[in-house]
Amino acid sequence: MRYAMAIDLDRCIGCRTCAVVCKNFNAQPQGIWWNRVFTSGTPEYDVAVKVDGQLRMEFVPISCQHCTDAPCVTACPTQASYVDADTGTVLIDYERCIGCRMCASACPYGVRQYNWGKPAKMVGLGDTVYEYGYPRDYRDDGHLVYAPERPEGVMEKCTFCAQLTSQGEDPACCTACPGNARIFGDLDDASSAIRTYLDGTDREPFTLGDEYHTEPNVFYLASHEVSQENPLEDAADEKGA
Amino acid sequence: MEKSTRIVGIVGAVLLVAGAVGWGIQLSGGLLAHSGMTNIFLWGVMIAMFAFLVGFGAGSQLVASAIWLTGREDLRPLARTAATWGLACVAGAGVAILADLGALRNILAMIVGLNLRSPLAWDMIAMTAFIVLAVIELVAMARQSPRTQLWAVLAGVAAVALQVVEGLLFSTQNAHSWWATPIMPVDFLAVAFVSGSALMLLIACMSGRLRKEGAAEAPRADHAAPAEEGAGAAGAVSWLARFCAWAIAAHLVLALADLALVVAEGTPQAGGVLDVLSAYAPLYASELVLPAVAMAILFSAGRKGSRPWCAAAAVLTMAGILAHRMMLLYPAYNAPSLYLQLSGTPYTTGPYPISTGRYLDWDATFGLATAYVPAPAELLATLLPVGVALLAAAVLTWMVRRAACPGAHANCDL
Ligand code: SF4
Ligand code: SF4
Ligand code: SF4
């Protein structure tokens, strides 16, 4: 079994629902984001870039890429970061993590999140603290990889929603995405949702940060805008002809 | 105990207490709460201090080993001082790493689940091996054991291994162009030679001890010609001045070669590194110019053994190395690693922001870089490892001297 995710940039509308749902479902403390969405080419959100005379705005969600050759796992001195042999998912055992930040330093994707100080729950209106997130600890083969009450001084990141996917459910971000842009499944299973989706498109999936040779298991599909002609210019050309 | 040793010990104890207070404040709001670090800038001044002290420790040991290997009987007291400071500085560095760990209570996890593929695990192994060998070497020196040379060589090998592993800890992180060069481990070694010889030079310039020990010890050494009063100290200063000057030359060549590699790389990541270098130009200039000036002094006045000039050169060198250790961090963490291409096109559009993890402190949720400024408590906490190193140096000096010169009170100043 090899868990993977496909993100179809053509379908992503940049609503950031996946980021918010991820934060909520995984009980992320204040300031911690396992998943984030920015527009390619600008440090700001929702800004277009001009390419070949055309404006283009492409939203790119990025969370842990669950790399096959994960530098974070190699770097971790305590084996707190490890690859789940059953699914290929990269996980962190909170009980083994000593907070050295070696893994985050080694990750080229900037997806690892360290808890500085005491992990603080998000606050609601009128500064009320509310309970949110999957309510129980989740252990993978004895490793504590999710806890609604975060221990102090540990590293955290996307687990492919291990507490859900271990029960055969889709990750929270995939279920919540209004554009169905995120497709999860087992790459080794020809009938899985992800294989069906990838096999059914003529677009070649690509991965991020190839220069780091990490072999990610999150695949992206290019947005179609790139192959579209400018309809206004086409119309003008036709008129002129 | 000699007055200068006592002063070093007292200063060390004061710094240790001040640093412990800073560390306590840092942890009071949760682990590493009071610090300027973020999920972009993951290691701060404590790690810079760690690398700084390890360089001094390994480098001092390399000076001691070099003296034993070259058979310089007249410099044996210096070798003892160097070995003592080598052990003390590495002990201080070890404390820096422990202090920087978010969850100190989990340190056992490192031992229980040691990942032998991790450079940090090897760093801990190399540091432990060094400390064990350095202790044995010091005991051998104190007892004037005939096996001292063997232990000095072994401790020297451990010092080389420690610096190379240290360099690999950074250079294996491909995510950071500034670190991921083959030069990094070699330069770590060069910096150790620079740091150790500069520290010993400063001590030799300021201490009357070496002169006394040179006179006291030389007649005892087998086959040694009787040393003149003061020959040991004068010889030590000019020998160290040359040692340090050549080490600085090697380090500067490597540092500039490293810069040339980044310039030649031509990637957006390397471009980001160059931007950070220009943003921190004064600090970067200090790491190059201060040792360069020191080198010029050492090659001129230093060769003649001028103590004031050599002491000034040693201080300049140490300041330059401190700047060098800080500049290990800025261009690495503040140059983004992930640049996106607009899908389906060859256009690299720009770097991708990271969640800082410090929203509560600074309202900054995402960013490409954080202008790291150590928090006051974080700065104060860096005095902890320095204090440990100084206190350990004083205690070890006293213990070794006591064991090495029993009864010879006139020359050993006990
Ligand atoms: S994206 Fe980063 S954290 Fe995730 S597996 Fe790859 S290197 Fe590790
Ligand atoms: S911070 Fe935790 S998970 Fe990351 S390298 Fe250190 S021990 Fe491993
Ligand atoms: S798979 Fe789960 S943990 Fe990962 S980004 Fe999606 S919601 Fe977050």
Description:
Chain A contains 7 helices and 13 strands. In chain A, 19% of the residues lie in helices and 19% in strands. A 3-stranded mixed sheet of chain A has the order 12-1-13. Chain A is globular and about 50 Å long. The model of chain A has no long low-confidence stretch (mean pLDDT 91). In chain A, strand 9 and strand 10 (143-146) form a beta hairpin. Chain A is α+β, with helices and mostly antiparallel strands. Chain B has 414 residues and is mainly alpha-helical. Chain B has a single domain, classed as Up-down Bundle (Formate dehydrogenase/DMSO reductase fold). In chain B, 70% of the residues lie in helices and 4% in strands. A two-stranded antiparallel ribbon of chain B has the order 1-2. Chain B has a two-stranded antiparallel ribbon with strand order 3-4. In chain B, strand 1 and strand 2 form a beta hairpin. The longest helix of chain B is centred in the middle third of the chain and has 35 residues, at 231-265. Chain B starts with a helix and ends with a helix. Classes of the chains: A alpha+beta (241), B mainly alpha (414). Chains A and B meet through helix 2, helix 3 and strand 8 of A and helix 4, helix 5, strand 2, strand 3 and helix 14 of B. The complex binds iron/sulfur cluster (3 copies).
Structurally, the number of domains of chain B stands at 1
Strand order of the largest sheet of chain A: 12-1-13
- End-to-end CA span of chain B: 5 Å
Going by CATH, the architecture of chain B would be: Up-down Bundle
CATH class categorisation of chain B: Mainly Alpha
Oligomer: heterodimer
